[in-house]
Design a protein that fits this description.
Elements lengths: L2 H14 L2 E6 L4 H4 L4 E3 L1 H10 L4 E5 L2 H10 L4 E3 L15 H10 L5 E4 L4 H5 L3 E3 L4 H7 L4 E5 L2 H11 L2 E4 L5 H4 L3 H10 L5 E3 L5 H4 L4 E2 L2 H10 L4 E5 L4 H8 L4 E4 L14 H9 L12 H16 L4
Parallel strand pairs: 1-2, 1-3, 3-4, 5-6, 5-7, 7-8, 9-10, 9-11, 11-12
Helix pairs in contact: 1-14, 3-4, 7-8, 12-13
Bound molecules: 1,3-dihydroxyacetonephosphate (13P) and iron/sulfur cluster (SF4).
């Protein structure tokens, strides 16, 4: 089947099944182009919570589809590649978070949305990269515990002045970038601003002119008065960046910034998942007892809006 035919077939199946296609900013360009909504984790969670569709086809990684299933339990949520996970989300289990809580009684648990439903169920509130500061402030405690991302936690601590204890998780795609690499890229592009995702190491964020979520990076690149921008996040972003700011040049802070899980999903996978939606093979389900304990943390996150 040609590319165009696949795209038409996907759109017609979405119409037939009253489906909505939610696509993360790191997905392959051809999938972003087909999206009803392309965005960051917060935008996609908000869209999943309020959609009128019966079927949510989530092109992203597992925790994102799981959040949609928690927020919209009456919808069918489909993940075209069930093997698209997030290594950072797998770095802490519910049992480990229970041990953290036992070791720090009374300390509010702020959990990055890049986590399992079971971990969210043990949490007071969730956050994404676009509202981690507001969410952490909102708990109104001098000390908080943030899991699982150590880099996000340290970045939040700098901005809120709270004591932020944290789990030692990280995103392999962002954590592997070193400050020295970024300095070399900056030296090759003098004067170009550098914008980074808060999953990067603190010493990398120290070099940044701005730090933002994936959608925040797109907005920054549109508004900044510069022809060239150095971008410190997953390179799938370059598709949206070039579309939104056609006259500008985007330079990767490191060519290694590729999330293999985000790249798994193809148009063929989306089509097949839609064709077989009724089989249940790609349906993301969250057990009722876990959902009941996780939903409040996610709803509080949505209520916090953006930083
Ligand atoms: P955003 O919420 O900024 O889109 O980030 C999600 C993610 O997985 C970053 O690695
Ligand atoms: Fe997870 Fe990192 Fe991939 Fe984002 S880029 S989905 S945090 S592994």
């Amino acid at each position: 089947m040609s590319g165009d035919t696949i795209q038409q077939e996907i759109r017609s199946l979405l119409a037939e099944k009253n489906g909505v296609l939610l696509v993360h900013n790191y997905q392959r360009g051809e999938i972003q182009d087909l999206a009803d909504i392309a965005g960051d984790s917060l935008a996609l969670s908000m869209a999943a919570a309020k959609t009128d569709a019966d079927l949510i086809v989530f092109c992203g990684v597992h925790f994102m589809a799981e959040s949609a299933a928690i927020l919209s339990p009456d919808k069918t949520v489909i993940l075209p590649r069930m093997d698209a996970g997030c290594p950072m989300a797998d770095m802490i289990t519910a049992e480990q978070l229970r041990e953290v809580k036992a070791a720090h009684p009374g300390v509010p648990i702020v959990t990055y949305v890049n986590s399992s439903a079971e971990v969210k169920a043990e949490s007071d509130i969730c956050c994404t990269s676009s509202n981690a500061i507001s969410v952490t402030r909102s708990v109104g405690s001098d000390t908080v515990y943030l899991a699982p991302d150590q880099n996000l936690a340290q970045w939040v601590a700098r901005h809120t002045g709270q004591e932020v204890l944290y789990w030692n998780g990280y995103c392999p795609t962002h954590h592997r970038v070193r400050a020295e690499q970024v300095r070399q890229v900056m030296a090759r592009h003098p004067g170009a601003p550098f914008i980074a995702h808060p999953e990067c190491r603190p010493e990398v964020l120290d070099l940044a002119d701005a730090v933002a979520s994936t959608s925040g990076i797109i907005a920054y690149c549109q508004s900044v008065a510069a022809d060239t921008v150095i971008v410190g996040t997953e390179t799938g972003m370059f598709h949206q960046l070039r579309k939104n700011s056609p006259g500008k040049t985007f330079v990767a802070a490191s060519e290694d910034m590729i999330c293999p899980n985000m790249k798994l999903t193809s148009l063929d996978d989306v089509l097949e998942a839609l064709q077989t939606a009724e089989s249940g093979a790609n349906v993301v389900r969250v057990p009722d007892d876990v959902r009941a304990r996780a939903v409040a943390a996610l709803e509080k996150m949505l209520a916090a809006g953006r930083d």
